[in-house]
Amino acid sequence: MSTPALPTDDHSDIFSSDFDTGLATNAAESGSQSCSPGSRPNVKVVSAGGLVFRKSGNLIETLLCARARPGHYGEDAPLTWRLPKGTPEHGETVEETARREVQEETGVHVKVLAPITSIQYYFVGHDDGIRYDKTVYFYLMEPRGGSTEDHDAEFDVVEWCSYEQALDLLEYDNERNVLQQARSLIETYREGVGP
Fold it and tell me: For 45-64, how does the pLDDT look when each residue is reduced to its tens digit (9 = 90+)?
């Protein structure tokens, strides 16, 4: 599997494509376009993450991360459950970003097995009002040591959940779709035959 290099820090070009056709080597478009007064450019950004799975008897378990919803504190605070992901560091490939981010956010060391899919969404920055068009690339991964107790401070909780629990817990439909798309890949690796 070829893995592209992510962009330099200037983020001057657009990152586009998907796993099937190979990835371009650039990740974001800066706001250097001319705009009418008061309008803001779209900024394209990229991140990468993973779906970590393990076999537990007849069950498939996946690794999820959660943090307390804004404004809620304490042990009974409602949680937002997510797949681990994050942004690239200078010179990283998409796969390297995915592996590093998953290891940092979960505390679990992982091996990347295969690309799953990418998702796209947008958000508006609270401070700048800019619309960010984001693409997130997800990889299927398996654990190779480490402990969920060693996760970084970005999340409050990191837990192994059954595949069915993960479908119920994940906050966003697009991440739930990643889990569903990964199912046949998980079964392939679970049976020990890998692609």
Answer: 899 999 999 988 888 999 99
